[in-house]
Amino acid sequence: MVKTITFSFASAEYEGTEATETFTFEKLGLDEHMDEKDLEIEMNRIYHAWVWSKLNISSSIIIE
């Protein structure tokens, strides 16, 4: 059986700002036998990158 992960988000502030996508472990480069804690850390990292990409967020900090 193929394992999948579904990422989704919705904005409470902006109507229509939402997305949902399902990926296989293979597509995300995840090992199905990975330790549960390591898997959680890696999924959080991938999820945050996915959200930033979907929202096309960029930022900068300038210190003078």
Account of the protein in words:
- The chain starts with a strand and ends in a 9-residue tail after the last helix.
- It has helices at 25-28, 36-55, and strands spanning 4-10, 18-24.
- By secondary structure, it is α+β, with helices and mostly antiparallel strands.
- The protein has a two-stranded antiparallel ribbon with strand order 1-2.
- It contains two helices and two strands.
- It is 38% helix and 22% strand.
- A hairpin with a 7-residue loop joins strand 1 and strand 2 (18-24).
List the keywords.
2 strands, single chain, 38% helix, two-stranded antiparallel ribbon, extended, 64 residues
In short:
The protein is α+β, with helices and mostly antiparallel strands and 64 residues long. Helix content is 38%, strand content 22%.
Instruction: Round the Cα radius of gyration to an integer and report it.
Output: 15 Å
Reading the helices and strands in chain order gives EEHH
Largest sheet: 2 strands, antiparallel
- Relative strand content: 15-25%
pLDDT averaged residue by residue: 86
Distance between the termini: 55 Å
**Tally of helical runs:** 2
Tertiary shape: extended
* Largest beta sheet: strand ordering: 1-2
Show unreliable segments.
Answer: none
The helix content, as a percent range, equals 25-40%
What is the secondary structure topology, with strand pairs?
Layout: E1 4-10, E2 18-24, H1 25-28, H2 36-55
Antiparallel strand pairs: 1-2
